[in-house]
Design a protein that fits this description.
The complex is a heterotrimer of chains A (183), B (238) and C (547). Chain B contains six helices and ten strands, in the order E-E-H-E-E-E-H-H-E-E-H-E-E-H-E-H. The two termini of chain B are 28 Å apart. Helix content of chain B is 24%, strand content 16%. In chain B, a hairpin with a 2-residue loop joins strand 1 and strand 2. In chain C, helix 3 packs across helix 4 and helix 18 runs antiparallel to helix 22. The chains are: A alpha+beta (183), B alpha+beta (238), C alpha/beta (547). Chains A and C meet through helix 4, helix 6, helix 7 and strand 4 of A and helix 2, strand 10, strand 14 and helix 18 of C.
C-alpha cells in the first residue's frame, strides 16, 4: 500500500511507523496488538488500551493503529468517534463524571451539574482553560442505589449534594498544577 | 435455484430464491421509493423509504434487505405507508439545509424527485438549520454536508467497488457525518484515488464535480453498474 | 476434573468453614462507600481479638439493600449491620464475644428481604465472587457436569422449553425456542454471546450479578454452548463496570485452571472458551445486531432482521445471544429441574425477575421476586413507599424503552404481558419510583434526550425523528407549543415506532406515549392557544422545495 503513495506522503507514513523508537508506550501497544494477532475485530480493545496508555486518542495514534491493523484510517476514526468512551482531545488533570441515569436524575443530578458549572465555569464535555478539571456526564454508572452519584478521578462517590460536589471541584481548582503533578 | 411465488400488490410474481422483495418488485414493473439503495453495492436498509407491509408480519420490513419467501403477500403502497414515507422525507428536509433553488443537483436530485412523487409539498416540522461545512479542498470534487442525507452510498462504493476506504461515517446520531480519512480535508487525503465513484453515487447535491453550478450536477450511475456487472460476470478476464 | 474431584473441593471448602462468618458486601455500590476499608478493619479486629480460628471475614457480592451500604451480616446469628464505617469493625467483632454495638442494625425480617425469592441472586451476598471454591461449595458447576454426562443437547433445549424461561433482556422471547433455533441452524462454527451491556439508566441488576456471582453466568453460557453446539463465547460488558470486568476475568481464569472452561471439559469431548469484550459507551449496543457489530470491532450500528442472529450472526455464523440474568437462571433450572422452575410465576411468565429499585423510595437496592408479584407489593411493602411522607406518583420500568405506570395501576402484576398492556415493558429490570414532585413531561423529555443522544444515526426516523420529538417536548415545556404541536408529536411517535430499524428507535417514543396516556393533563396545562395558520409551523414560512 505504501508503494503507491506519493513521495512526500510516504515520508509522513514512515514517520508515523517510526513512532515506537521514540515512545515506549507504542511498544506496549504493539505487544497488545500482537496478542490480538493484529486482527481487525480487536479494534475496540486496542483503542481501549491506547487510551489507557496515552490518555486520549490523537490522529497520529489512530493512524498508527490503522496501519498496524491494516484498516482504512477513516474506519478507525469512525469507530473512535462512535463510542462515547473514547476521547480525541486531552482531558484535564482531574475528571469529574456526574451520573445522569434516571435514578440520579430524579434525585437531582442536574443540580449537581449546575453547581459544578457555576464553580468551574465549564459545560459538560469541556475542560477548564488551565487544564485542571474536565466535567463529564455518564448515562448510568449503575450505582442507582446510592444516587445521586459522581465519579471523582475514578472513585465513585455516593449521595452527592450540589454543595459537596462544588466543594470537591473547588478544591481541585484552587490547588494548582503542583497538586496535579503530585498525583 | 428454486423459484418462489409471491404476491406483490395483488400481482402474482415469481422470483429466484434469495432475491429481495425490491428485486422481485422491480422485475414485475413495480417501482418502490428508495434512497439508500444503489445497484451494485450491498443494501443497509437505512432510509426506510422502501418499507412494505407483509401479511402475517406485525412489523414493516424494508424491501431492499428482506428476501422473498413462498406465498408471501406484500403490499407496497397503502395510505399508512405513504404517510410514513412523506413524514420521513419531511424529517430529512428539516434535518439539514436542503435548499433546492440554489443546489447544484436541482432537477437531478433523488431526494427532490422522491418528494415530488410522494406529494410532500411542505414541511410541518421546524427546520434545524444546522451549521455544516462545505469541503472544496479536493481539486476535482466537492462535498457539501448541508445536503447530505447520510445514505452511506459513497462510503459503500468507496470501500466495495473502489476498495480505497477513504470515506466513512464519524460520530453518531444527528451529529454523524461523512469523513475522509482521519476527518481531514478531502484534498489532503492520502488514500483517495480521485476515482469519482462517490460523486457518481450521491443521490443529492452533497457530492459534486467542482465547477458545477445550480442545476448542472448530473451523474452517470450506469458507470457504477457497468463496473460491478463486469466484475461479477468476469467480463474483463480474457 | 471429574465429578469426584469437584465434590472433594466442595467437601473441603465446607469442612474449612468456621463457626462464625462475617459477610461484608464488596459490590460496586458498597465499595464506593468504602467497604474495602470496612472489610480490612473487620479482618484486623478478628485477628486482634484472637478469633482467627473462629471467625471468617468473607467479601461477598451484593447484599441487596444498597441504600444502607456498606452492609455487614453476621452468620449464623443473622444480624445485619448498616452503613458500617471502618472504626465500627471492632465493636461488630465484639458482639461475637457477647459485647454490644452502637452500629445501626437492619431488620432481616423486613418485607424487603422476606418477600424476595432468590434464584438468580441465590449466591449473591453469600459466596465469595473471587474464589471459585466458594461457588463450588454452593453446588456450582454440577449442572454443567450433569448436562455433559447425562443429557444430549436436545434434552437440554427441551428442558429449557419446558421450564418456560423467557429472555430477561427486555422483549421476553422464549429462551428454549431461541436455543432450539440456533441448535438447528446449519454451520460448523457457532457462537454464544452474553449481553452484559446494561445500558438502561437506572438498572444495575446485571452488574450486580456479574460482580456477585460471575460463575453462574459462565456455567449458564457453557450449558448453552453445549446445547447449541458452540465452542466460543463472548461476554460483552460495559466499560463503565470495571469491577464486574475484573471479577469476570478472575472467574474465567479460575474456571480455566480447574478445567471447567477450555478443552475437554469434565473429561468430555466438549470444548468451550469465553472471551470478554468491553463496550465503549453506546446504548445502542444492547441491541443484538449492533452488539455483534461491536464485537467485530465495528461501529455499533444495527442491521435489519431477518436474518436473525440465530441463523446469521457473528461473522455470519449462527449465534445465540442472551442477557446476563437469562444465563444466570440456567444452572438452577438444570440442577433443580424444569418443573420446579415452571411452578414459579404466572402462566405465561415463569420464574423470578430481578429489579433494581431506585428513585424516590425508602429502600433502594436489588430485589428478586416471583413473576406476577403486584407492583404495589414491590414499591409499598418492599420499597417502603416514598420517603419523607411523599406520595408515589408513577413507577417507570424498562428505561428509555419503557413507560411510566401511574400510581392507580399499581395493582398490576409484574409479568411481560401486563406491563406491555400498560404501554411499558419489563425491560431489563430497572424500576424507578417517582413522587409528586416529578414533572412527567420533563421525564418524557429526559428519556427522549437520551434516545436522541444514543441514536446511532443510521436510519432516518430514529436519527431525525428523535430530534424533532425532543424539540417538540422542549417547546411544550417552555410553554411555546400549541395543540397542533401535540398532534405532531403524537403522529411522530407513531411513525418512529413503526418505521425505525432497531429496537432503540422502535421503543424511543414509549416514555412519551405512556406519559401522554396517563398524564395528559400535564401536557395540556402547558399548551398555548393556537395562533398560527392552517400549516402553522412557527419557525419558517418558506417551504424548502419549490412546490
Amino acid at each position: 500500500m505504501l508503494i503507491t503513495l506519493a513521495k512526500h506522503k510516504r515520508k509522513t507514513a514512515e514517520q508515523v511507523l517510526q513512532h515506537p523508537s521514540g515512545d515506549k508506550r507504542f511498544k506496549i501497544l504493539d505487544t497488545h496488538m500482537k496478542r490480538h494477532q493484529f486482527k481487525a475485530d480487536a479494534l475496540i480493545e486496542i483503542l481501549h488500551r491506547a487510551q489507557e496508555l496515552f490518555g486520549y486518542l490523537d490522529n497520529d495514534l489512530l493512524l498508527y493503529i490503522a496501519y498496524s491493523l491494516k484498516l482504512p484510517a477513516s474506519r478507525v476514526y469512525g469507530v473512535a468517534t462512535f463510542y462515547h468512551f473514547f476521547t480525541l482531545k486531552p482531558k484535564g488533570a482531574h475528571t469529574c463524571v456526574v451520573c445522569l441515569g434516571t435514578a440520579c436524575y430524579v434525585k437531582g443530578a442536574d443540580k449537581l451539574i449546575a453547581a459544578i458549572q457555576d464553580v468551574a465555569r465549564i459545560k459538560p464535555g469541556e475542560t477548564t482553560p488551565d487544564n485542571q478539571v474536565s466535567l463529564l456526564t455518564a448515562r448510568c454508572i449503575g450505582a442507582c442505589g446510592i444516587a445521586p452519584a459522581a465519579v471523582y478521578d475514578g472513585t465513585v462517590t455516593p449521595r452527592q449534594t450540589p454543595e459537596s460536589a462544588a466543594e470537591k471541584v473547588k478544591g481541585w481548582l484552587s490547588h494548582g498544577p503542583e497538586r496535579a503533578a503530585a498525583n | 435455484m428454486a423459484a418462489k411465488t409471491l404476491t406483490i400488490d395483488g400481482k402474482e410474481v415469481s422470483a429466484a430464491e434469495g432475491a429481495t422483495i425490491l428485486e422481485a418488485a422491480s422485475d414485475a414493473g413495480i417501482t418502490l421509493p428508495t434512497l439508500c439503495h444503489l445497484e451494485g453495492v450491498y443494501d443497509v436498509g437505512a432510509c426506510r423509504m422502501c418499507l412494505v407491509e407483509i401479511a402475517g408480519t406485525p412489523k414493516l420490513l424494508p424491501a431492499c434487505t428482506t428476501q422473498v419467501s413462498e406465498g408471501m403477500n406484500v403490499t407496497t403502497t397503502s395510505e399508512r405507508l405513504q404517510q410514513y414515507r412523506k413524514m420521513i422525507l419531511e424529517l430529512l428536509f428539516a434535518e439539514r439545509n436542503h435548499v433546492c433553488a440554489v443546489c447544484v443537483a436541482n432537477g437531478h436530485c433523488e431526494l427532490q424527485t422522491l418528494a415530488y412523487r410522494q406529494g410532500m409539498d411542505h414541511v410541518r416540522y421546524d427546520y434545524c438549520f444546522p451549521k455544516w461545512d462545505v469541503d472544496i479542498t479536493h481539486p476535482l470534487y466537492g462535498m457539501d454536508h448541508n445536503r447530505c442525507i447520510l445514505c452511506t452510498r459513497c462510503v459503500r462504493v468507496c470501500w466495495h467497488i473502489e476498495g480505497a476506504g477513504t470515506k466513512n461515517v464519524a460520530g453518531r446520531g444527528a451529529k454523524a457525518q461523512i469523513i475522509t480519512d482521519l476527518f481531514q480535508p478531502w484534498g489532503e487525503s492520502d488514500t483517495c484515488t480521485n476515482c469519482g465513484k462517490c460523486v457518481m453515487s450521491c443521490p443529492t447535491g452533497a457530492l459534486f464535480y467542482r465547477g458545477a453550478t445550480v442545476g448542472e450536477m448530473e451523474r452517470d450511475r450506469s458507470k457504477l453498474e457497468f463496473i460491478v456487472t463486469a466484475r461479477e460476470k468476469k467480463q474483463w478476464i480474457p | 476434573m471429574d465429578l469426584n474431584e469437584l465434590l472433594q473441593i466442595k467437601e473441603k471448602e465446607l469442612a474449612a468453614q468456621k463457626p462464625h462468618t462475617l459477610r461484608c458486601c464488596m459490590a460496586a455500590g458498597c465499595m464506593s462507600s468504602n467497604s474495602q476499608a470496612v472489610k480490612d478493619g473487620l479482618e484486623k479486629a478478628v485477628a486482634d481479638a484472637g478469633l482467627s480460628n473462629q471467625v471468617e471475614v468473607r467479601g461477598v457480592g451484593c447484599m441487596k439493600l444498597c441504600c444502607q451500604g456498606p452492609l455487614v451480616q453476621a452468620d449464623p446469628a443473622g444480624a445485619l449491620y448498616e452503613r458500617v464505617t471502618p472504626p465500627d469493625a471492632a465493636s461488630i467483632v465484639g458482639t461475637l464475644l457477647g459485647g454490644a454495638t452502637h452500629v445501626g442494625k437492619g431488620d432481616p425480617h423486613d418485607p424487603f428481604f422476606t418477600k424476595q425469592l432468590s434464584i438468580v441472586l441465590a449466591n449473591s451476598g453469600v459466596v465469595d465472587p473471587e474464589r471459585i471454591e466458594s461457588y463450588l461449595a454452593a453446588d456450582g458447576y454440577t449442572g454443567l457436569h450433569e448436562v455433559l454426562h447425562e443429557m444430549t443437547p436436545k434434552d437440554v433445549v427441551e428442558g429449557l422449553v419446558k421450564s418456560g424461561l423467557r429472555g430477561r433482556g427486555g422483549a421476553g422471547f422464549p429462551t428454549g425456542l431461541k436455543w432450539g433455533t440456533v441448535a438447528k441452524s446449519p454451520g460448523e462454527k457457532k457462537y454464544v454471546i452474553c449481553n452484559a451491556d446494561e445500558g438502561d439508566p437506572g438498572a444495575f441488576m446485571d452488574r450486580s450479578v456479574l460482580e456477585s456471582d460471575p460463575h453462574s453466568v459462565l456455567e449458564g453460557m457453557a450449558i448453552a454452548a453445549y446445547a447449541v453446539g458452540a465452542d466460543q463465547g463472548f461476554i460483552y460488558v460495559r466499560a463503565e463496570y470495571p469491577l464486574a470486568i475484573s471479577r469476570l476475568q478472575t472467574a474465567i481464569r479460575q474456571a480455566k485452571q480447574m478445567g471447567l472452561l477450555g478443552s475437554a471439559i469434565f473429561e468430555s469431548p466438549f470444548n468451550f472458551n469465553i472471551d470478554i469484550r468491553i463496550g465503549a459507551g453506546a446504548f445502542v449496543c444492547g441491541e443484538e445486531t449492533a452488539l455483534m457489530a461491536s464485537v467485530e470491532g465495528k461501529r455499533g450500528t444495527p442491521r435489519p432482521r431477518p436474518p436473525f442472529p440465530a441463523e446469521s450472526g457473528l461473522w455470519g455464523c449462527p449465534t445465540l445471544i442472551n442477557n446476563v440474568e437469562t444465563f444466570a437462571n440456567v444452572p438452577a433450572i438444570i440442577r433443580r429441574g424444569a418443573d420446579w422452575f415452571a411452578s414459579i410465576g404466572t402462566e405465561k411468565s415463569k420464574g423470578t425477575k430481578v429489579f433494581a429499585l431506585a428513585g424516590k423510595i425508602k429502600n433502594t437496592g436489588l430485589i428478586e421476586v416471583p413473576m406476577g408479584t403486584r407492583l404495589r407489593d414491590i414499591v409499598e411493602q418492599m420499597g417502603g413507599g416514598a420517603p419523607d411522607g411523599g406520595r408515589i406518583k408513577a413507577v417507570q420500568t424498562g428505561g428509555p424503552s419503557g413507560g411510566c405506570i401511574p400510581a392507580d395501576a399499581l395493582d398490576t402484576p409484574v409479568d411481560y404481558e401486563s406491563l406491555t398492556k400498560l404501554g411499558s415493558i419489563m425491560g431489563s429490570g430497572g424500576m424507578i419510583v417517582m413522587d409528586q414532585t416529578t414533572n412527567m413531561v420533563e421525564i418524557a423529555r429526559f428519556f427522549m434526550e437520551f434516545c436522541m443522544d444514543e441514536s446511532c444515526g443510521k436510519c432516518i426516523p430514529c436519527r431525525a425523528g428523535t430530534v424533532q420529538m425532543h424539540h417538540l417536548l422542549t417547546k411544550i415545556i417552555e410553554r411555546k407549543a400549541t395543540l397542533r404541536d401535540l398532534a405532531k408529536l403524537e403522529e411522530l411517535c407513531d411513525m418512529v415506532k413503526h418505521t425505525s430499524l432497531c429496537g432503540l428507535g422502535q421503543t424511543a417514543p414509549n416514555p412519551t406515549v405512556s406519559t401522554l396516556r396517563f398524564f395528559r393533563h400535564e401536557y395540556l396545562e402547558l399548551l398555548q392557544p393556537d395562533t398560527h395558520g392552517p400549516h402553522g409551523n412557527g419557525a419558517v414560512t418558506q417551504p424548502p422545495v419549490p412546490a
